[in-house]
Amino acid sequence: MKDEQKAEAKGHGSAPRPSELFWLFARINAVTLGGGYVIVPVMATSLEKKGWMTEKDFYDIFARAQAFPGPLALSSALLVSQRLCGTKGSIAAFFGVMLPPFAAIILVSGIISRYGSLPAFRRFLEGAGAVVPGLVAAMIWKTAAKRKWTYLRIAETLALSAILIIFPAYSLPILLAAIALLYCIEGPCKRSR
Predict the structure, then answer these.
(1) Whole-prediction pTM value?
(2) Domain segments of the chain: what residues?
(3) pLDDT tier at 13 (50, 70, 90 boundaries)?
(4) In 3-state terms, what secondary structure has residue 52?
(5) Cα–Cα distances in Å, from 94 out to 35, 81, 101, 189?
(6) What does the alpha-carbon distance between residue 149 and residue 141 come to, in Å, rounded to a whole number?
(7) 115: which residues sit within 8 A by CB, 6+ positions away?
(8) Residues 112-158: pLDDT tens digits?
(9) Residue 158 to residues 49, 85, 161, 185: CA-CA distances in angstroms?
């Protein structure tokens, strides 16, 4: 199975070494602000540019990564690296994703405690925060553009969005119930009828 995965990765380009995955994810996580939904599109683009994985394959893995608990960027990186390099790749990806934010928190906390009251520093943080919604919107647009939309799917998406807006305190149970219901509507339950 491991050899098949590496052969599949080689079909898109040469398979990366674990150290290459570490440095790729470390660079991405060192310079990207905004969490998983901002980091994920950067990962997809970087992996495709390197020829290690197609964008479609990445987003298939990303869809599975959302089912795992914990940070989305970490789950995505672990699953991608597992496919490309096996366990060694996953270990490298773990440290590539986790070390830069850890080091940044230590560094930034020192800087904030020293310079946090300066107006220029506050403006920088406000500007960085303003970029995040645009990056999230770009990822949603890109993902939505690739989906095959039907009237049923549009209605499902609008209904779920309305319910989440009306009942934000219950978003997790609503999402879990919606996933199960929509899976039944569009998935194997529909085919078995």
Answers:
(1) 0.55
(2) 2-145, 148-193
(3) low
(4) coil
(5) 15, 9, 12, 36
(6) 13
(7) 121
(8) 888 878 888 888 877 877 777 777 777 778 777 777 888 888 888 88
(9) 34, 39, 5, 16
